[in-house]
């Protein structure tokens, strides 16, 4: 029997989305828990994220708006099963649809204040059976991290640190179109100033979610949390996980786990060698993943008998190299740029090749696939002056003020004619002219006959919420000058890893679970397979399957 320096009931490797949900559950079951975090901050990529969770049939939806059966119908319609997708199965998807709303009820019962993410944030394939055109999203309320006391500075930085709900934050770029948004922004500015004067440290989105989870864990003494504590080994003997090896004061420390080990250590977005092997053509520099997600636990799980799958999947998030992109905390994303009226995207031969709306995961996957036939990394977003007059560019406001600076820096290319622009970006002028003419014809008819952009509620969500006669997503490119920016297949994390069962147990060779070894989040082959069904399809499953793991290990089954 292995000797240990200390022992807990439950050890969690990494402080991702599932970690603290599992700790709260263990506390309720009267068990002890240790969370070991490699970096100096708690919260993982989840903290840096939007913190949106895709939770079907959740407590904030209207009666009759959703149901377990409708959610399962949608997941089954959107996620194909197959030998290349062992992370998903009808059982894992049903488990998610059933348990996610229960997990949400549980964390709310622990004092974690949540709300509906938005009333309009459609599923990414809302046209499929069971799809919802309203929203299945859930987010945390903004949080004053000063409430964490000495732990405030140990919470990883959020991508957006203001006293504002995520849904409202996403409206700010449209401020000039609406007095209501201006008023809302004035209130937020006032709250920010008052907060500064009164010592508040407001965070929102993922940092609010993980901040609130951390507060609940600290208040209940649900776990001991150690930062700067990388786990290097999972100790497995006779097919059973017994504990881990971490580092304390520069020395290896063996820690035993009576009930089990949950690995919630994120993905491998920061490991270029693993990218080259599994996600060829993608780059660490384009990724928004956090520095500590380098796949060390993927390799360790494989070493102890786990099976890796769906490793060629990432949650793509298209980006552009706007000035400062290489040092920005969050890379400039272009998800809603090319879905707006007066904008399209073309490959290097000047052809459109996809619906520029839709999910970021599908967008980048399509870009990478297309690149194997026609060079399309980077692709070019093509816009006209109407676009520049109305919308932010890659999320950046102040377009009028900054445009000439951006052109000078070489980020934005421009031409007085489509042909002139084509010459700037090395795309055949006649081909680009034909593509733009065809697009303008579709806009006149109100139908994108090639890719059906604008026919899904989600395309509208990304389009213009204040259309001026052109529809939400379609708008001609016909007012000079014309502009282009290069678009790359970035990501917000990888999406493949170890294969698990409905109880989050890691499956060994032959498909049998390794006793006492659990995993959740993007350390696993996603239960969503190779598809991203809606906003929050990463954080929601991580938290839910972390919570399920703890229920299973504590022997609570369906009692919670
Ligand atoms: C800007 C941005 C916005 C996003 N928005 C959303 C969103 O709104 N909704 C959504 O669902 N997804 C979103 N994503 C994606 C999502 O954030 C991640 O996929 C998800 O948070 C991953 O969660 P996780 O629990 O698997 O791991 P993580 O949250 O990444 O946590 C893993 C933790 O494990 C630690 N760790 C790694 N190795 C070790 C080790 N050996 N020992 C100890 N600790 C270790 C890491 O340091 C890290 O803290 C977004 C991502 C970004 C970057």
Features:
Flavocytochrome C3, Chain A, domain 1, eight-stranded mixed sheet, 31% helix, FAD/NAD(P)-binding domain, alpha+beta, binds flavin-adenine dinucleotide, 560 residues
Task: Outline the fold blueprint.
Elements lengths: L5 E8 L3 H12 L4 E4 L7 H5 L4 E2 L13 H11 L11 H20 L4 E3 L20 E4 L2 E2 L21 H4 L9 H19 L4 E2 L1 H16 L3 E3 L4 E7 L2 E9 L2 E13 L8 H7 L17 H8 L4 E2 L4 E3 L26 E4 L13 H12 L7 E6 H6 L8 H10 L4 E3 L2 H8 L3 H17 L11 H6 L19 E6 L3 E4 L2 E2 L6 E3 L5 E7 L19 H15 L7
Parallel strand pairs: 1-2, 1-11, 2-8, 11-21
Antiparallel strand pairs: 3-5, 4-5, 6-7, 9-10, 10-11, 12-19, 13-18, 14-15, 15-17, 16-17, 20-21
Helix pairs in contact: 1-7, 1-16, 3-4, 4-16, 13-14
Bound molecules: flavin-adenine dinucleotide (FAD).
- Assembly state: single chain
- Chain-averaged pLDDT: 95
Number of strands: 21
CATH structural fold name of the largest domain: FAD/NAD(P)-binding domain
Unreliably modeled segments: none
> Helical content, roughly?
25-40%
Q: Please identify the top-level CATH class of the largest domain.
A: Alpha Beta
Bin the strand percentage. 15-25%
> What CATH architecture of the largest domain do you see?
3-Layer(bba) Sandwich
Structural class of the secondary elements? alpha+beta
Tell me, what's the shape? globular
Biggest sheet overview:
8 strands, mixed
The value of Rg in angstroms is 24 Å
**Which ligands appear in the coordinates?**
flavin-adenine dinucleotide
CATH superfamily of the largest domain: FAD/NAD(P)-binding domain
**How many structural domains in the coordinates?**
2
CA-to-CA gap between the ends? Answer: 33 Å
Number of helices: 16
